[in-house]
Amino acid sequence: MQSEELRSLDNEHVWHPFTQMRAHREEGVPIIESGEGFFLTDVDGKTYLDGVSSLWCNVHGHRVPAIDQAIRDQLDKVAHSTLLGLASVPSIELAEDLVKRAPEGLTKVFYSDSGSTAVEIALKMAFQYHAQKATPDTQPRTLFACMQHAYHGDTIGSVSVGGISIFHQIFGQLLFESVQIPCPSAYHRPTEYTKAGYLEFCEQELERLIVENHERLAAFVIEPLVQGAAGMLMHPPGYLKRVRELTARYGIPLIADEVAVGLGRTGTMFACEQEDVTPDFLCLAKGITGGYLPLAATMTTDEIFSAFDAEPDEYKAFYHGHTYTGNSLACAAALATLELFDSEQTLDNVKQIAEVLTQRLAELKDHPHVGEVRHKGSMVGIELVADRETKAAFPASKRMGHQVTLVARKQGVIVRPLGDVVVLMPAPGMPAELIHQLCDVVFAAIDEAV
Ligand code: PLP
């Protein structure tokens, strides 16, 4: 099919996610046909550097021989069989591998197929855990604590613990109750606070909100270290540890949503490791299959599991599951992805990426339209502002972040904005010279667009 015909069929029939479709039709986005390494090629033969890892999930590149082969080998056995009443070889082997790699104590793996469902499952498990542990005099725990500006996915449960108004506000009447904890990322603080004063306020509010609500809290859900979709908002060192201390003290399960930050993105396999934290739930998706196939894992502890481990006539099973739970092809891709972390020393590569980024991002230090650069591992947010001194934003109608990505795309680099934050999310396996190419093009695009 010719590219014009494909484009008109795309416009006619495909409803794209999080997309204002009128603008999509007018813009004419690239239609990707193939990929190789860290590049994607469209139907017109134009090649692009994949600067956001295909929405934060690609890890070792596209068409990686070891992952391709693992999927083919599994395809020669069976593509899928259910985990309801049956078990499967790849889902067992992957669970063992994940348990070995995850923070100690996370011994159980519940599979699903997206980041949203990984979180949804943790929320439901936490709720059911309390319900099954409850005594007649305990009040029901129907409240969840989450961070301001959080993003945990787009199912109703995960939206309920989210705080990005442009995505979540419209569904407000459908959502369950949550307590929003102020986000300790100081750039957007109210003007009356100094940076130190704001961080102190956040610390006090964290404790106050937990103490006040602890008897009703089913869980506390957090993106450890970096709130990605909020525009790469970074928590100060020690914050996650403090959340762990407080939640442990008040018997509140901690859900670490590592859908974005897990699988090497922050420089360690899991972000929780950096603060020596074991959560009660660890949610993984995106990079778990190297960006090949939809798969997610919600990991938890023996303690949580014990509340569900009962006789059939006690009806304490976890009543949740999807048709493709633990899909064999996806588990095979995940096993190969994890093995490549070892054989390719991918975590060392992320350290090199981080060094190159630190050095290159310093070039934006005095840029008149860069308000703040936030960076951890291979995750970067460049916040564009109309005025660096006052932090005044560009008028929304200018869609400045979007303009930068359009210019970069013309120059052969795919990046995505989050509002006026330009996000760079190179794959953990991307070689350093491509990081330079990514920075060269994006920095030039910022200069051209603003
Ligand atoms: N949690 C976090 C932290 C995310 O960044 C995302 C997606 O960006 C999700 C959950 C939802 O994942 P998915 O889009 O696979 O449902």
Automatic annotation (TrEMBL):
<dbReference type="Pfam" id="PF00202">
    <property type="entry name" value="Aminotran_3"/>
</dbReference>
<feature type="binding site">
    <location>
        <position position="416"/>
    </location>
    <ligand>
        <name>substrate</name>
    </ligand>
</feature>
<feature type="modified residue" description="N6-(pyridoxal phosphate)lysine">
    <location>
        <position position="286"/>
    </location>
</feature>
<dbReference type="InterPro" id="IPR005815">
    <property type="entry name" value="BioA"/>
</dbReference>
<comment type="similarity">
    <text>Belongs to the class-III pyridoxal-phosphate-dependent aminotransferase family. BioA subfamily.</text>
</comment>
<keyword id="KW-0949">S-adenosyl-L-methionine</keyword>
<dbReference type="InterPro" id="IPR015424">
    <property type="entry name" value="PyrdxlP-dep_Trfase"/>
</dbReference>
<feature type="binding site">
    <location>
        <position position="151"/>
    </location>
    <ligand>
        <name>substrate</name>
    </ligand>
</feature>
<protein>
    <recommendedName>
        <fullName>Adenosylmethionine-8-amino-7-oxononanoate aminotransferase</fullName>
        <ecNumber>2.6.1.62</ecNumber>
    </recommendedName>
</protein>
<keyword id="KW-0963">Cytoplasm</keyword>
<keyword id="KW-0093">Biotin biosynthesis</keyword>
<feature type="site" description="Participates in the substrate recognition with KAPA and in a stacking interaction with the adenine ring of SAM">
    <location>
        <position position="18"/>
    </location>
</feature>
<feature type="binding site">
    <location>
        <position position="286"/>
    </location>
    <ligand>
        <name>substrate</name>
    </ligand>
</feature>
<dbReference type="GO" id="GO:0009102">
    <property type="term" value="P:biotin biosynthetic process"/>
</dbReference>
<dbReference type="InterPro" id="IPR049704">
    <property type="entry name" value="Aminotrans_3_PPA_site"/>
</dbReference>
<comment type="pathway">
    <text>Cofactor biosynthesis; biotin biosynthesis; 7,8-diaminononanoate from 8-amino-7-oxononanoate (SAM route): step 1/1.</text>
</comment>
<feature type="binding site">
    <location>
        <position position="321"/>
    </location>
    <ligand>
        <name>substrate</name>
    </ligand>
</feature>
<dbReference type="InterPro" id="IPR015421">
    <property type="entry name" value="PyrdxlP-dep_Trfase_major"/>
</dbReference>
<dbReference type="GO" id="GO:0030170">
    <property type="term" value="F:pyridoxal phosphate binding"/>
</dbReference>
<comment type="function">
    <text>Catalyzes the transfer of the alpha-amino group from S-adenosyl-L-methionine (SAM) to 7-keto-8-aminopelargonic acid (KAPA) to form 7,8-diaminopelargonic acid (DAPA). It is the only aminotransferase known to utilize SAM as an amino donor.</text>
</comment>
<comment type="subunit">
    <text>Homodimer.</text>
</comment>
<feature type="binding site">
    <location>
        <position position="257"/>
    </location>
    <ligand>
        <name>pyridoxal 5'-phosphate</name>
    </ligand>
</feature>
<keyword id="KW-0663">Pyridoxal phosphate</keyword>
<feature type="binding site">
    <location>
        <begin position="322"/>
        <end position="323"/>
    </location>
    <ligand>
        <name>pyridoxal 5'-phosphate</name>
    </ligand>
</feature>
<dbReference type="InterPro" id="IPR015422">
    <property type="entry name" value="PyrdxlP-dep_Trfase_small"/>
</dbReference>
<dbReference type="GO" id="GO:0005737">
    <property type="term" value="C:cytoplasm"/>
</dbReference>
<dbReference type="InterPro" id="IPR005814">
    <property type="entry name" value="Aminotrans_3"/>
</dbReference>
<feature type="binding site">
    <location>
        <begin position="115"/>
        <end position="116"/>
    </location>
    <ligand>
        <name>pyridoxal 5'-phosphate</name>
    </ligand>
</feature>
<keyword id="KW-0032">Aminotransferase</keyword>
<dbReference type="GO" id="GO:0004015">
    <property type="term" value="F:adenosylmethionine-8-amino-7-oxononanoate transaminase activity"/>
</dbReference>
<keyword id="KW-0808">Transferase</keyword>
